[in-house]
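From the pipeline queue, job 12 of 40. The input is one protein chain; the requested action is below.

Action: predict structure.
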Amino acid sequence: MFDLIIKNGLVFDGLAALPVRCDVGIAQGKVALIAATIAPTAKEIIDAAGLWVAPGFLDIHTHYDLELEIAPTLLESVRHGVTSVVIGNCSLSLAVGDAPTLADMFQRVETLSPVLIQKWLRSSMNWTTPREYLEHLRQLPLGANVAVLFGHSALRAKVMGLERSLKEAATDEELEAMKRIASAALDAGFAGLSVDMVPWHMMSGEWRGRTIPSQHADFREYKMLAEVCRHYDAVFQVTPNPQQHQSLVDIYRLSYGVVRAPLRITILAALDSVANRKLWRVFKPLLVVMNKICGGNLRFQTLTEPFTIYSDGAMTPLFEEFASGVKLNDCASRAERQGLWQTPEFRKQFTYEWTNGYRNTFHRRLDLMRIVSCPDSALAGKLFTEVAAERRLEPVDLFIELLAHYDTDLRWVATGANDRLPQRLALMKQEYVLPGFTDAGAHVQNLGFYDGAISLLKQAVQTKFMTPEKAISRVTGEAARWFRLDTGVLREGAKADVVLINPEFLHDPISEQIAIHDALLDGAMRMVKRGSDKIIAAVFINGRCVFRDGQASALADPQSVGEVLRPTLPSAALEKTRRRNRIRPELEDHPFTEYWDIFVLKHQHPFNLALHALGVLLFYGVLIAAVAWRNYWLLLVLPLSQIVGLLGHRIFERSYIDWQDAVFSVRASRCLNKMFFLLLSGRYFAEIEQKNMILRDYQTAQAALSQTKTGNGS
């Protein structure tokens, strides 16, 4: 008997296959059966006619670390169909360290509510090691599943002490200690490590205004951590310095994989920035070069909607990127900030830094910044430039006057990126860019992008820039497989993390952010999204219904629903073998294990074969000529033989190129020689036909097996 049967829904598998209308049987937290019809023998039966049945969404970039300790249901994400989250991003985590230090790292970087910080500080930290931290998480009544990254800032402060971690490079002994602890964390089940290079991520508390510990590491420290991740094939999450090109060079040095295993690295973030309208074009060629040519395994993340941020006076993360803005955020009170504004030198500094345009990440354009609320209600809804024109002031002078007079009572909003639809769609569609970067749980008064997956799906349905099955896979199976997490798919034996979607409401526009008074924050304001309640009919995590018809259900149960996820798919060795043995980018599944069979299917076009044969002749011809004429300078011409073969693939046959084979490998050399002699003897085309027949038979058998499974069940 099943615990639950979902009948008559259109089922998406999370791997971009065409959806199929069928029934889904769930038992003991797993998908027990997917079939055209399942006999109604279950404790509960849901008729999903007219609904889409999909795997639960995976949010790959959240900062729920502290909120998990206070309200582990993560309801704000779950209500939007998110069943799994990744925490520990941007070098921040709770895995090691003392509570006050960790709170000082989180509060300003993620602009967390002081109420949340104080609630957490009143709770007890009963762990001292990464393994004990994971055990602690398993004891919490989790709503969503949680995968955990180990934060470098917490690690660095633990090993070096906070003061030294904010000022100095690590010693050899300290690097060894960090390596030992990081390795132990990955052994325990952490999904990877996170580091941070963004220069406006600041400490609060005693060391306020100083950048967090991960910022003070040198390249060898980052390299050591990257090598730990490379060894485990774990995720290495990094936020580069957008104002310093050297940070991207360093990331390249860490990630390339031509002569070594690639580093599984994810970078924040690929955005269409208002401050630099050409930047979005860089990501595609950069990612192609890094992944295709340099053998990397790199993924950027992008936000699926306009990057709109609300701010309260000068208390905003947008001010952290320039010195006078940092000084304002350093202030502990309104009186301190007003004292700064009364200083002519400070006003002059602020005006200069606001208007000089040097290395702006936030655009600082007052004609794009709108007043949301203010004690002077006549200003609400107006652009700062409109108010400045009315008062015959320079816009920046007007801005300063309002900030100085109203302080945090002045609430304003600006969109810094992803405001243009075509560019946003192009970023979301790119092969090596994952939809993510929601920052869920962070900046609670500034932003609330909890519905990132729904926003992607809405745009896919409305613009048709991507099929619904592909859009769903991008935030389920594709993301989960890259993070090596056993979730995000809907197939027999998989975790029963399921979301029921009403497609009728996917034609609604992307939901606006709204402010609520959150009981978790003792009634303080929190930016959230609403509107998904019409789209998300129900959410199931590990087979239990946690949200239905706009209401939380099992989340009120003190017993855990979600679980702590650890990376399981696949090992580095298996992945490397699979990658090197690909035939074509779109053909990942085939029955061949011998490289000769794979080689033949990658070399079928007559002109490609001719160029490869020419390459073999060039190779041996140059070798013979060099020996015969005793002119070994001729050996410098040998790479021409490889280039000729690569041209054959480039022009005539776009099969998958493994660069280790392209430069030189024993297996590729052996197969080239065999192909050459079989071409001379006229037997090579029979080899092509034989391998294609095997491949067709395999694909037919797989399709029949899938159809049989779909047709069974009673």
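Job complete. The chain has three domains: 57-307+417-565, 309-414, 581-701.
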